[in-house]
Amino acid sequence: MEWDSPWGKGFPGWHTECVVMAVKYLGIPFDIHTGGIDHISIHHTNEISQAESAYNKDLAKFWLHGEFLLLKEGRMGKSEGNIIILNDLIEKGINPLAYRYLCLGAHYRSRLNFSWQSLKSAQNALNNLYEKVAEFTSFRRSSKKGYKEEFLGFINNDLNIPRALALMWKLIKDDRVSDKEKYNLLLEFDKVFALDLDKVKKTKIPLKIKNLVKKREKYRQEKNWEKADEIRKEIEKSGYQIEDTKKGPVVK
To answer: Which residues pair with 74 in a beta bridge?
Structure first.
């Protein structure tokens, strides 16, 4: 992929392909061009110079360069041979959207350190979010303008997703906003987050599990902890989790 030129050997093919495809399918200029920070010095500068020479126009209005995803050993990449794929997460019982949630917590221009512990924390946060969304029911469109405007302000300010994510939790905890309004706003926010909040439904607990919970509670009152623990394990094997609270056991 190299050619002779008056300035020496060059290999513009890769960058030319990108320019041709972008102009064909997106027009020129198009709004946003993304890529990793490693594309700045060669790949994107070539695209810019070729597009401007050919069309006398900017190729894109905004260039967003994402920082690296890091492991303890350093940068994650194909050339490093340390790639973790989504199927690896699924095999460990982790929702792939938990990885997305983890990424949303770091600004795209900030390096993100990956660890299984941080991913587990992201999964817990996502599960908590799903539980909160399941509590909100709404069939009518309504919204608090303040939250919506603030959200748009964050994502339009250099795509500040971490602050938008923090705003989402602020909304959930805000007692001044009704559940219906919260639900509708969360669905609006999720057009950016893409965490499938519209698919969250309140779990219907089967009668068999409810009966096991009652049985376990009876053993707990009798202080028969061994039997109570056996039933807890049986409940978990069925795909449910039991949480003991001051108000009584809660099944998730």
So the answer is: 71
Radius of gyration of the chain (CA): 25
Whole-angstrom Cα distance, residue 168 to residue 160? Answer: 13
| Neighbouring residues of 225: CB distance < 8 A, sequence distance ≥ 6 | 219
Q: What residues does 249 pair with on adjacent strands?
A: 244
**Token code pair at residue 63:** 């260039």
Identify any residues that bridge with 250 across adjacent strands, giving them in sequence order: 243
DSSP code of residue 161: H
- What size, in residues, is the chain? 252
Quote the CA–CA distance of 212 and 156 in Å, as a whole number. Answer: 50
**Structure letter (DSSP) for residue 59:** S
Phi, psi values for residue 107, rounded to 5°:
-65, 145
pTM confidence score: 0.73
Is residue 166 within 8 Å of residue 172, measured between CB atoms? no
Query: Which tokens sit at 93?
Result: 């019982």
Strands 69-71 and 74-75: antiparallel
- In tens, the pLDDT along 187-204 reads 999 999 999 999 988 778
Which CATH number applies to 70-202: 1.10.1420.10, 3.30.540.10, 1.50.10.10, 1.20.120.1910? 1.20.120.1910
Determine the 3-state secondary structure of 49 from DSSP.
helix
Q: In this predicted structure, what is the pLDDT of residue 81?
A: 66
Spatial CA neighbour of 193 closest among 165, 167, 173, 166: 165
What are the tokens at 219? 């053993």
